[in-house]
Design a protein that fits this description.
Order of helices and strands: EHEHEHEHHEEEHHHEEEHEEEEEH
Helix content: 25-40%
Distance between the termini: 32 Å
Largest sheet: 11 strands, antiparallel
Strand content: 25-35%
Number of helices: 10
Number of strands: 15
Structural class: alpha+beta
Length: 303
């Protein structure tokens, strides 16, 4: 019998998942998995729990929580020689990675059914400064709001909390002088932010990296150059429709390696969590882990 380990954040989203835990366990057992679970208790706990599950020979790890929980699970299994499959039950605030792999949001039972009916596919992950990410890495003041918003506020009002914090931060955002090397090319100048993306879903924007593929060994690199408040808002409105990539303030390209050097302090955002300070060199790890996703998304990857 195959073994599954569910690692869940009991405070994620609106504390939704634990209400459904008995039914989730039953569905995995009925699908042929000997299933157990682990509730995280502090930051970094999911890393240790995932590593332990991998070392103990579990076939599948199910990360139930937000993008931060998924990030910790990935960091737990990324360096194992034999890595278990990964599945995701999205009950966080933004759930970018779940969007990218076609898992239903905010419906735990539908997500479980999609996992069990879906297919495993190998996908890329990223590495920077001895840390791993599965969806997005970035820097710039606005990227910091994903971990500056209080967890209680996110639990109460969901993604609206990010918009409220973003509006509060906008007037104080200043550009930062950087050097960004990408596959033999060099960008030098002042930027508002940069993003190194593995999927097309970033901060709830599903068209921010429109050419992104999960398994091509390449990052999508997006740089927002220096802009005033009006220009910034205009580019953001274009990004909602996916019409931003040809704007004069945007540099959008593909790269396997990206090296970022900053002249001022700039924090590193990894899958929506604080990842330390830059500089950093980002490396794409080609098809490094296997993820269960919707059949539709799996077929799209095979095309």
């Amino acid at each position: 019998m195959k073994k599954a380990r569910i690692i869940y954040n009991p405070t994620s989203g609106r504390e939704l998942f634990k209400k459904y835990l008995p039914e989730v366990l039953q569905k995995f057992e009925q699908a042929g998995y000997e299933t157990s679970c682990h509730a995280t208790t502090c930051e970094g706990d999911a890393i240790q729990a995932a590593r332990s599950a991998g070392e103990r020979g579990f076939d599948l790890i199910v990360a139930a929580g937000g993008d931060g929980t998924i990030n910790e699970v990935v960091n737990g299994i990324a360096e194992l020689e034999v890595r278990p499959q990964l599945a995701v039950i999205p009950v966080g605030t933004t759930n970018d990675f779940a969007r990218a792999i076609g898992i239903p949001l905010n419906n735990v039972i539908q997500a479980v059914e999609m996992i069990l009916e879906g297919e495993p596919q190998k996908i890329d992950i990223g590495r920077v400064n001895e840390q791993y990410f599965i969806n997005i890495a970035g820097g710039g003041r606005l990227t910091e709001l994903t971990y500056e918003v209080p967890s209680k506020l996110k639990t109460m009002v969901g993604q609206l909390a990010y918009y409220l914090k973003g509006m509060e931060m906008l007037p104080s955002i200043r550009p930062t002088e950087v050097e960004i090397e990408y596959d033999g090319k060099l960008f030098q100048g002042e930027i508002m932010l940069f993003l190194v993306s593995l999927t097309n879903s970033v901060g709830g924007f599903e068209k921010l990296a429109p050419d992104s593929k999960l398994n091509d060994g390449m990052f999508d690199l997006l740089i927002l150059k220096k802009a005033n408040l009006a220009e910034f808002i205009r580019v953001a409105s274009l990004a909602i429709r996916g019409e931003h990539i040809n704007d004069e303030h945007i540099l959008y390209t593909k790269a396997n390696r990206v090296k970022v050097t900053t002249h001022d302090k700039m924090q590193l955002n990894l899958d929506g969590e604080y990842g330390g300070l830059l500089p950093g060199e980002f490396e794409n790890l080609y098809q490094h882990i296997e993820v269960r996703m919707s059949q539709e998304k799996a077929r799209q990857m095979e095309e």
